[in-house]
Amino acid sequence: MQARQRIEAEIAASGGWISFARYMQLALHEPGVGYYASGARKFGAGGDFVTAPEFGSLFGRTLARELRPFDRILEIGAGSGALADVLADGREYLILETSADLIRRQKEKLGNRVQHVQHLPAGFHGAVIANEVVDAIPAHVVHWTDGGILERGVATGLQWADRPATGELLDAARAIEVPLPYLSEIGLQARAWMRTVVEALAQGAVFVIDYGFPRHEYYHPQRATGTLMCHYRHQAHADPFARPGEEDVTTHVDFSALAEAAHAAGGEILGYATQAQFLVNCGITDVLGEANAENALHYAPIASEAQKLLSPAEMGELFKVLAVGKGMDRLTGFTRGDRRASL
Ligand SMILES: C[S@@+](CC[C@H](N)C(=O)[O-])C[C@H]1O[C@@H](n2cnc3c(N)ncnc32)[C@H](O)[C@@H]1O
Predict the structure, then answer these.
(1) Whole-structure pTM over 0.85, yes or no?
(2) Ligand 1 cavity residues, CB under 6 Å
């Protein structure tokens, strides 16, 4: 069965309407038909998007400097395994991945250098990394109107349809101040995910790296149509119903919400910075220097990689790093330009 039929069947069985979060769950993660769960190419030049670890090893080699003190790493949502390929250097490296297709690809690439786990290990000591994972966690869509707060879901024929918001979503939407009318997303499941990850951590740090903003920027009056974005063959567009199961559907991350959830679960906010600032603090220029010394010919591609990772016009500003920990000392990645006060 195709994703579209599977989703239509569920809408029909649910009385003609499902939440957008449920739609996103089915379109991305439903075994057999979801975009991540099925065999779509996804990553790299021949796929739909390129993540930082896919550009080359510079991102991983720089992050590795921050991760030196940790003798165990848990990567959540490891994609093609490109980051693990750089970071799994003999120490214990665990991967928690929901997609059966990607687990297979990761095992092919990484063999016994990594160990796959099916659940978050309780009482975990070490570093947890989630790069571009939270943007793929299903989000709810909310429509704030003069007539009240509505939840925007999906009706038969894959069309938007509003209903009064209720329960936890209504409470979360009421807590956000926006000019009316206003449309945006609320990541209830992302908050729950963050709580669960921090609860599982006994000692160490969680690094969430993704595109997003603190709450006051996320729900800015000028961002009145939300942050929903789809990625198909390196083109971004905003219609999540165009190719269900065949393309990535994402929302930006509300880092204030994640920080609150982490704090409520007993985590300490260790830092929040742009990706550029974080990588500079970790010593990306030293890593570039090493590459230059190794081989001048090798330098041009790695310099172009640095440009993509650091430039404000590319990933440098939009991507952020949030670190949360328990029983941790200061991290090098936040020694300058820590913006946690903006969360
Ligand atoms: C956009 S990809 C990023 C992959 C990789 N981290 C990278 O940077 O290239 C999202 C990854 O997260 C996985 N994923 C999504 N939700 C997840 C969840 N709740 N738990 C674990 N993995 C998840 C997907 O299957 C996929 O491997």
Answers:
(1) yes
(2) 36, 51, 53-54, 76-79, 82-83, 96-99, 102, 131-133, 136-137
